[in-house]
Specification:
Blueprint: E1 3-4, E2 13-22, E3 25-32, H1 50-68, H2 71-75, E4 82-92, E5 98-105, H3 110-122, E6 129-131, E7 134-148, E8 152-153, E9 156-157
Antiparallel strand pairs: 1-7, 2-3, 2-7, 4-5, 4-7, 6-7, 8-9
Amino acid sequence: MGVRLSLILILGYFTTYAQKHLTEEVQDTLVPFAIVETPPAYPGCAQSDVNNLKACTSKRIQHFFEENFELRKIKAIGLKPGRYRTSVLFKINTEGKITDIKANNYQQVKEIEEEAVRVAQLLPEMKPGKRRGEIVSVHYGLPIIFDIEPARVRGKTKN
């Protein structure tokens, strides 16, 4: 069965968890990414402009998934030809580490979810994001879409 990866890694969404000090505890509060003053920075992304930094980080994360997502593993389970979707969610914490990784595969194929989580675990440490001058944890979501094509015999599609 032929496999084609169309990892349409659309700029997912970012949601920020700003940390506030309440008494002696730290509590996470959901804050939209749009108000993050400084987004997390993937290694090698050093743009001073916020929009360029967001674009650089997103592009590097997308490229990382394209390079490391192993479709051979997915092909080996014998899925039918078609389009498959999953999304991976993770937090870039205040230390720049990737934590709280979750995947949601809409066709409920366990191996696709596991592969998405595996690749997210390999992401490098990043420079954490900031909001109002404070280092914050940022929740990053990335949709992954790929096609499994029908087997081809000598350049012709097999029905």
